[in-house]
Amino acid sequence: MSHPNPPNPASLFFAAGASQRLLRALMRAAQALGPGLASRLAFALFSTPMPFKKTVSPQVAAPWVAEPWELMGLRLCSWRHREHEAAAASRPRVLLVHGWAGSAQQMRPLAERLWAQGFAPILLDMPAHGHSQGWQTHMPQFVQALHAAAQRFGPLHGIVAHSLGAVAVSHAVARGLPTARLALIACSAPPRQVLGWFAQSFGLGRKSMTQIQQRLERLGATTLETFEPAWLGPRLPQATLLVHDEQDRAAPFAHAQAFAAALPDARLLAVQGLGHRRILGDAAVAQAVAAHLRGEGF
């Protein structure tokens, strides 16, 4: 069932209001001076998680303990249960990955339920998010952080990811990140579609949009096509659970359907009334994810 109103692309970035009107005006002025200036300004905006990261982000509450580490000179933060070291040998390790403008704190309710069911969750604050360093980031850097985290914390039995984090995880696994099972919650549309929504939201011209896409592809040394379901599907043999609200206003349910259809070993769990973010705290969703990680339900 689709929502009677299509997803509002502006909701992915800013609430409609004075801030968005001001940014649209700035973008129009930049484009009047040339697409190069407009694309640089737009790329900076596109790479800045909104709302802005707090100078002091809330700690993930005990019993979760912060573990700082570095990625190419950038200080990142992960979180593990205080009893992780003592129990890790007998518990399958599961990486939890938040989405754009999210944080490890969002994944804590899910992590607590997975710990209670015998797993060893590891929560990441991605670059420029939560307690990790930086104010700007992009999809290629998300992917780099995932590969580095897998090397640091692996072997990983599974990965649970939300929203844009789910897109990054899918790409990273398709490009060789080792794991046995995937759970993708409220998976976002591919970057090319998100970029189109961004351009629509701020009145960005086609030439500026193309320049942003080319810059992202240079940074990732790949094309945005490699984030599309048609490219990912044949390269993701892992058993995959997709959980998605049918009325998700930020990530269209139709994308989850298309992604599930492209994967060789996928199950799509449709839910209602949980939206794009509340879905992370739902007990029934956590139970389904835990069952999937145990190998049940396929």
Commentary on this structure:
There is one protein chain. With 298 residues, this protein is α/β, with parallel strands linked by helices. It has two domains: 9-46 and 199-226, no CATH class; 62-190 and 228-293, Rossmann fold, CATH 3.40.50. Helices cover 41% and strands 17% of the residues. It has helices spanning 18-32, 35-46, 84-87, 104-116, 139-153, 164-174, 191-201, 206-220, 229-232, 253-262, 283-293, and strands spanning 64-71, 74-81, 93-97, 120-125, 158-162, 181-185, 239-245, 266-271. Strand 1 and strand 2 form a beta hairpin. It is globular, with a radius of gyration of 19 Å.
In a few lines, what is going on in this structure?
The chain is an alpha/beta fold.
* Radius of gyration over all CA atoms, rounded: 19 Å
Give the overall form: globular
Mean pLDDT: 88
Which architecture name of the largest domain does CATH use? Answer: 3-Layer(aba) Sandwich
Features:
2 domains, alpha/beta, 11 helices, Rossmann fold, Pimeloyl-ACP methyl ester carboxylesterase, 8 strands, AB_hydrolase_fold, 298 residues, disordered N terminus, Pept_S33_TAP-like_C, globular, Carboxylesterase_BioH, eight-stranded mixed sheet
Topology:
Layout: H1 18-32, H2 35-46, E1 64-71, E2 74-81, H3 84-87, E3 93-97, H4 104-116, E4 120-125, H5 139-153, E5 158-162, H6 164-174, E6 181-185, H7 191-201, H8 206-220, H9 229-232, E7 239-245, H10 253-262, E8 266-271, H11 283-293
Parallel strand pairs: 3-4, 3-5, 5-6, 6-7, 7-8
Antiparallel strand pairs: 1-2, 2-4
Helix pairs in contact: 1-2, 2-8, 5-6, 5-8
